[in-house]
């Protein structure tokens, strides 16, 4: 075995070194890293390695574990460092509300995490970075018009002192809306919005779910807004649930949608034609829209538990026919049945599975208050 081959096998063996954390990506925790940064001493998945490469080799020198040549001193450096050692250094001070990216998260979260961690070194100082200056954040974001659907710059103002997010259409005028952050949700929807930095905000307005579609041209800016919203919600949670551990509160900040996609829906009689609707499952709320980026859903359905009569089953009730070449299922809620069809068999199974999981989950006190909102 040549010395290069020996180095490579030593390096690959480091993936399994006990307590090293090297068996999952240092940044998104995806399994089986294939790459490493030879100067930062971390093992990485393919996607995160790509964002490391974008930082430039003066910050991170990316190499393939199996295809590149490794010198003995480089392997020794990787052995002396590794993912857990780097975590202690680069993630010393990550605020609890900060969103760590997972293997399936949008690229903007992954990229900004990597930039914050290794380039801006936001988490290595003695004090955490503040996403709200003096409890407020203000700036401009592109917002999609409710009627004309055009994205235009609007001023946004997040205030941790009264727990609101305001936005303004005209300067020095009253805000267009004052959004209490208590029931407000924020999540990234890059695919639906065809924009890598696209973020959706959902809140309650006059008893309906109102959706805002926002983006910033700058990835750091939109992720800073997202984390500022999380920070403000953390402050609110501390007041609303005194005595609850911060770690627990940090899990209740904002939510990603469980699932979104097109389904066909027919009316109650069995005679109506099928209409295609965009469905979004947000925790215990199922919303359906005429178009994916509508400001308001056509309907917003609270989902309770199996014991209360919420059910989903394959196929349609007697008297109903599936739309040609689709796969039907029935969603039953107390007093109503929804007859739905998915374009693919797997898609139907996937919807049924996530709905069933919601029905099997016990209701929390927050869930119950959401039911009557
Ligand atoms: Zn990764």
Automatic annotation (TrEMBL):
Domain of life: Eukaryota
InterPro entries, alphabetized: Arf-GAP_dual-PH_domain, ARFGAP/RecO, ArfGAP_dom, ArfGAP_dom_sf, PH-like_dom_sf, PH1_ADAP, PH2_ADAP, PH_domain
Residue ranges annotated for the Arf-GAP domain, each copy included: 9-131
Boundaries of every PH domain copy: 134-234, 256-360
Keywords: Metal-binding, Zinc, Zinc-finger
Keyword Zinc-finger: yes
Transmembrane segments: none
Pfam families with a match to the protein in the record: ArfGap (PF01412), PH (PF00169)
SMART domains the record matches: ArfGap, PH
Protein's name according to its UniProt entry: Arf-GAP with dual PH domain-containing protein 1-like
Native source organism of the sequence: Priapulus caudatus (Priapulid worm)
The gene coding this protein: LOC106814909
